[in-house]
Amino acid sequence: MSTSRRGFLRGIAGVGAGAAATGLSGCAPNIAPSPVLDAEKESDGRVRLDVKRYPDLSRDGGAVTLRVPGEQHLLVMHPGGNLYAVTSNICTHSGCPLGFEQGEAICPCHGSRFALDGTVTNPPARAPLRKFTSSYDADKGVLLIDFAAGDVGFPAVVEGKIFFPFAQFPELRTAGQFVQGVPEGYGKLLFVFALEGGTYSAVDGICTHQQCPVTFDEPVQGLWCPCHNSRFTKTGDVTRGPDESGGAITIGPLKKFTASSDASGVTVAIT
Ligand code: FES
Ligand code: FES
Asked: What is the full DSSP assignment across 221-247?
């Protein structure tokens, strides 16, 4: 069966480093991040999981952290029966990896919770997780995760532009909010930020150091690369370089796109 709906978010290597780096503490629920499973993408851009081989996933209520080379880490959840759901596995609050309990993804760091479709059910996180297309073949016991399909519900590139209707993305009406996802026709992570003064910023979400996906670090209000700790502003400028350079700025900014708005929504020109 297919999972569906609107999706969004990112990364992991350096698990929890965002929270640690920002010095956060809070009431951490008694839950651990889901166990790690490594897998490879096939030539069609999909990952096939023979679920019964993985007891952590095949049991009702199970979940794993899926590591796929070149991709962000995923949380693969099995609330029960033939239902599976796949989201990014990094908390949109400050980058901690998630656990799964009672049908929700839960952040051990400060207690954010997310529904199976990635929407926030408990703060402090405000932005949803990214949601990935998946389907489960109950006869074969195989779960198919499709990286090539783009983010479920995220708008596609049409004639060189991506349009985000306010009706579908109301967060873009409010300065400080953002959306993120992989638009079909672009194929990479994109962030769109609502800035002060009714302006917008759209930046590529792939770090210019070694192409890891970046994530939004809410306490810092900037983008953070979990691979080697580089940091960027909402407009893509580098504020800290990778660890190997001691944080010196030796890498370029994130790719920036023109973003504009009218009464109906935000348009990003993909050039
Ligand atoms: S990192 Fe703070 S709630 Fe997840
Ligand atoms: S890939 Fe981002 S800092 Fe190295």
From this structure: TEEE-TTT--EE-TTS-EEE--GGGTT
Peptide bond into 124 cis (omega under 30): yes
In a domain, 8, yes or no: no
Per-10-residue mean pLDDT, the chain, length 271: 29 34 49 90 90 95 90 90 92 87 94 91 85 90 82 82 88 91 85 96 96 88 93 98 96 97 95 78
Residues 202-243: pLDDT tens digits? Answer: 999 999 999 988 888 888 999 999 889 999 999 999 999 999
Mutate to test the pocket of ligand 2, among 225, 239, 245 (most ligand atoms within 8 A of CB): 225
Span from the CA of 124 to the centroid of ligand 2 (angstroms)? 26
Residue from 107, 120, 129, 217 to probe ligand 1 pocket by mutation (most atoms less than 8 Å from CB): 107
Whether residues 245 and 176 fall in one domain: yes
Is there an atom of ligand 1 within 6 Å of 205 CB?
A: no
Give the separation between CA 195 and CA 218, rounded to whole angstroms: 14
Domain residues for the domain of 241 are 161-269
Prediction pTM value: 0.66
Tokens of 39: 């897998």
